[in-house]
Amino acid sequence: MRIEKFDYNDIDDLFANTYLVSDENNDAIIIDPSVDNDRLISFIIAHKYNLKAVLLTHGHFDHIRGVNRLLKEFEVPLYIHEYDKEFLTNSYLNCSISEGKEIMINKDPILLHDNDILSLLKERIRVIHTPFHTKGSVCFYIEDCGALFSGDTLFKFSIGRDDLPGSDPRSVYASLEKLKKLDENTKVYPGHGPNTVLKTEFMLNRFLLK
Fold first, then answer.
1. How far apart are CA 20 and CA 46, in angstroms?
2. Residue 12 has what pLDDT?
């Protein structure tokens, strides 16, 4: 499995990360297309990837801004947890209205649930529902490769905030307990900032101390 990280460092882009994950057959998925530009599309075309789907860890605008443009170029399904479906068409919930924009996703998504297994690549992807940043926040876990795409649930030495529209602060620790059960050598690919490893987070992240 190959993981390509696209990080956007413009101030307007909130330093959001986008991931392209591909297997040995050149099948690929995109996780959180955060910017509406040609860079990601050109990369997919240049490497002749067979894009299978777009996966969203949650519905905030800085993780979905590139969805419409991407789906216009590639006719693939869009996945989001059932509790965040409304974020796609509600600029208050997805927080885009606070930026003076109204981002709307004109695509009927496939709805995710806790412990769903996605067979989009050679390696299976497990959905881990981790509500608190939003009620429909999820992590995507590829156990065979020891990779966790954590969205805004877990960052290096920190976690996502729980005071935005649609947040569920009462669920913070129940959600983090799910991550504590994963292999400590799992590599974490967060929605913002640098990558990390669960073992490091278990030792140094005050929210995950064992």
1. 13
2. 54
| Structural domain count, the chain | 1
In this predicted model, what pLDDT tens digit does every residue of 44-91 receive, in sequence order? 999 999 999 999 999 999 999 999 999 999 999 999 999 999 999 999
pLDDT digits 0-9 by tens, 163-192 = 999 999 999 999 999 999 999 999 999 999
Predicted TM-score (pTM) of the model is 0.95
Domain of residue 56 covers: 2-204
Cα–Cα distances in Å, from 156 out to 29, 30, 60, 86, 208? Answer: 23, 21, 20, 29, 11
Cα–Cα dist 140/5, whole Å: 15
159 belongs to a structural domain:
yes
CATH of the domain at 51: 3.60.15.10
Task: Evaluate whether residue 101 is within a structural domain.
Answer: yes
Rg over CA atoms, the chain = 16
The Cα 199–Cα 14 span in angstroms is 27
Distance CA 195, CA 45 (A): 26
Amino acid at 11: I
| SS3 call for 2 | strand
Q: Are 128 and 177 in contact (CB under 8 A)?
A: no
Domain assignment of residue 210, yes or no: no
